[in-house]
Amino acid sequence: MRGWFTRYFADTDSIAVPPTPSRKRIAPGPGESYDVSRRPPPFGHPLKHYFALDDKYVNLNHGSYGSIPLPVIYAANQLAYEIDANPDVFNRVAYKPRLAKSREAVAKLIGADTGEVVLVPNATHALNTILRNFEWREGDLIIGATTTYGAVSNTIRYLTDRSEQPRPEMLTIVYNFPLTHAEVLELFRAKIREAKQQYADTQFTDVPPLSEGYDRDPAEKKNKIVAVIDSITSNPGALLPWKEMCSIAREEGVWTVIDAAHSIGQEQHINLSDTKPDFWLSNCHKWLFAKRGCAVLYVPKRNQYIIKSSLPTSHQYVSPNSPKYKELGTNFVMQHEWTGTTDETPYITVPTAIAFREWLGGEQTIYDYCHKLAMDGARRLAEIMGTKVLNESGVLVATMSNVYLPLPVEKTPGEIYSPEVLANISMFHDEQAPLRIQHIRWPFLPQRCMDVSVQRAGVQRHLRLRVCWEGVQCYLRGGEGDYPFRYARETARTSAIELTRRRGLGHCH
Ligand SMILES: Cc1ncc(COP(=O)(O)O)c(C=O)c1O
């Protein structure tokens, strides 16, 4: 017997959706609409007209939070009126077909089937949905890396810490950049082999469906190894050879969870049907221009049996012990359509965001501009600071690049940037009011990181200037960061000299 919720939410595809007119219509303001029949403005400052960014703000950090175009903000606001014109009609009838359109648009972009794609609030949520749904056994291993994003490695840590048994164990690959793609692959394979040797008595027979030796019979499955792999690490911002890592993992019988938080809208040629990761997730609110609070979770049909419950568990949960399980399986898509009342507008903005990108010339055009800007900008910054870029060949660069700062280099982790030295540096910079600079040393990363926030005469100019330079977008133009770069160079040089004087440390540049 199907309940009221199932009736309303399951059958709406076949219903002609009544309009939900709102008395309140807002007319689009400047930059909030565009004429598809006309060419877009050239990239760089003319495009800033279509973004809400403060004129005085040079956003060199598109990567952390994204920044959405005004037509997307406008569409989201208009939708808010529509939702509240008749919350019942929207939530019970109009929402699901709109959500399906968003899922379809995202699926097309990443080369997946719409039935393998759902939307969730963010990458952390998607990652937790996957890792908390695996049924762990004592002796299972999760492989992360020193570059794994904080909340992600903490999720792994939590799984290994929590009181319920059984708990998996966590292993960590040390990526000490700069590295070539070949070196990353070597380290990845070596870690898997090392783990198997270290636990030679463990039978890793729970392998993913596409690996040799896969057995459907749960009784035949003993332990598993799950690798959590970044497609693009955030610190430093480096594009990893994740597709090749998926192949290695498949050969080795290791499950892959791809944290591609930065990929959609930044990385080109994501074709999940070709690459076949076991799980993949990406934020739509970073590079794709969807409203904040929207990420895509991809689970191929062959692995949907693993995702027994959405987070949180929803109305559409199907117990494996119920008769419905035979027909619906885990009901992956419908479970994720409604996981409790929330604001659905971020999910619905996806097609608007993609349409705007198409008007700009499409994914490749945007990428080509931003990639060149990231490469040129990084070289210019290195030139101004008298240092070098992390990756001259550009294989690690999509649209985020990395530059060395003119500060002493540690030869072994912690040698120079001990907490005491970091405190010294901060103190030194605190004395340099009105400039505030924080130095952050990320474990095992290349030695020097700096976070710069410049505040002058009430005008804020923010510049993230650390080893990871967090990414450029097509509303910027070349040379834009010169002023803060020069400012930073002076400060960095002074700090290096002062640090050297105070501590008697060597100076690398
Ligand atoms: C690599 C990586 N994974 C996961 C996340 C988490 O994203 P969110 O905060 O949207 O959950 C981030 C955020 O920047 C990230 O860089």
From TrEMBL:
Pfam families: Aminotran_5. SUPFAM superfamilies: PLP-dependent transferases. Residues 69-157, 222-391 form the Aminotransferase class V domain. The keyword Metal-binding does not apply. The keyword Protease does not apply. Keywords: Pyridoxal phosphate, Transferase. Residues 19-39 are annotated as: Disordered. GO terms for molecular function: transferase activity. This is PLP-dependent transferase. It comes from Polyporus arcularius HHB13444. The lineage of its organism: Eukaryota, Fungi, Dikarya, Basidiomycota, Agaricomycotina.
